[in-house]
């Protein structure tokens, strides 16, 4: 099993869209037994894939009040399961600080049986949850919008991680007609590219990954290419 974090310091960079689409690629195109774990209290991935299970609170699994398995549910997509988020995760950083278990997330992931790939949709910022993620994953995929602020955020992440976990930057929301975007992509031709596409926004209307309602679109193909690059990175590690 390999764990992959979709993470950025910044919000609004397409992190959730990437997590959901990559999870679909893993499950549907590569036949991987896949688990998408939504760690963001905004619960956007959870909503896109059908909503969280009622009753139990997501934070409770980290304090071990309930078993992780109790919150796993199968989505409408074959081989894709979900651990949903809810607003209880707003207190997750405080909980991690209080329980003082540096590898709680790592241990929970290790205890998951039957999955080939675990993808984490992470909240933005440098927080205690971020530290837990760094100790738990094999690869961090970082969405980078072609802009100075997004490039600065990547530099900060790189400086904070300090080689503890491999980083895989990905240019997102790219419009090559814009000179700034074209120059940014040319400066890092080795980075995968996800184009600007209205279909990505339409995921909210369909509440589904692109592969479900627009499998032949340029954006869907770009996510598929990105997932293949991720698999290559994991196999080379």
Describe this structure in words.
There is one protein chain. The chain is an alpha/beta fold. The chain has helices at 15-29, 44-48, 92-99, 104-110, 128-134, 148-161, 179-187, 198-201, 203-206, 210-213, 218-236, and strands spanning 2-6, 34-38, 72-74, 80-83, 117-121, 139-144, 167-174, 193-195. α6 (148-161) links the parallel β6 (139-144) and β7 (167-174). The radius of gyration is 17 Å and the shape is globular. The protein contains 11 helices and 8 strands. α1 (15-29) crosses α11.
Attribute tags:
single chain, 237 residues, alpha/beta, Rossmann fold, 8-stranded mixed sheet, 11 helices, globular
Helix content: 40-55%
The name of the CATH superfamily reads: P-loop containing nucleotide triphosphate hydrolases
Nearest-integer average pLDDT: 95
- Judging from the principal axes of the Cα atoms, what is the shape? globular
Q: Over the alpha carbons, how many angstroms does the gyration radius reach?
A: 17 Å
Short synopsis of the structure:
The chain is α/β, with parallel strands linked by helices. The chain has eleven helices and eight strands.
Topology:
Elements: E1 2-6, H1 15-29, E2 34-38, H2 44-48, E3 72-74, E4 80-83, H3 92-99, H4 104-110, E5 117-121, H5 128-134, E6 139-144, H6 148-161, E7 167-174, H7 179-187, E8 193-195, H8 198-201, H9 203-206, H10 210-213, H11 218-236
Parallel strand pairs: 1-5, 1-6, 2-4, 2-5, 6-7, 7-8
Antiparallel strand pairs: 3-4
């Amino acid at each position: 099993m390999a764990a992959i974090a979709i993470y950025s310091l910044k919000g609004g960079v397409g992190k959730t869209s990437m997590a959901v689409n990559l999870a679909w690629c893993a499950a549907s195109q590569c036949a991987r037994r896949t688990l998408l774990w939504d760690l963001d209290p905004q619960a956007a991935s959870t909503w896109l894939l059908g909503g969280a299970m009622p009753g139990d609170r997501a934070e409770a699994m980290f304090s071990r009040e309930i078993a992780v398995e109790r919150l796993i549910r199968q989505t409408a997509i074959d081989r894709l399961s979900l651990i949903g988020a809810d607003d209880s995760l707003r207190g997750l950083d405080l909980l991690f600080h209080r329980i003082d278990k540096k590898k709680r997330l790592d241990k929970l992931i290790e205890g998951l049986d039957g999955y080939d790939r675990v993808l984490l949709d992470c909240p933005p910022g440098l927080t205690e949850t971020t530290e837990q993620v760094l100790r738990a994953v094999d690869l961090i995929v970082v969405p980078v919008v072609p802009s100075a602020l997004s490039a600065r955020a990547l530099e900060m992440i790189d400086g904070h991680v300090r080689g503890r976990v491999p980083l895989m930057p990905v240019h997102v929301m790219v419009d090559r007609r814009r000179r700034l975007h074209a120059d940014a992509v040319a400066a890092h031709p080795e980075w995968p590219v996800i184009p600007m596409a209205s279909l990505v926004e339409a995921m909210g209307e369909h509440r589904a990954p692109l592969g479900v309602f627009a499998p032949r679109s340029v954006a869907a193909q770009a996510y598929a290419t990105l997932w293949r690059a991720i698999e290559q990175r994991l196999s080379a590690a």
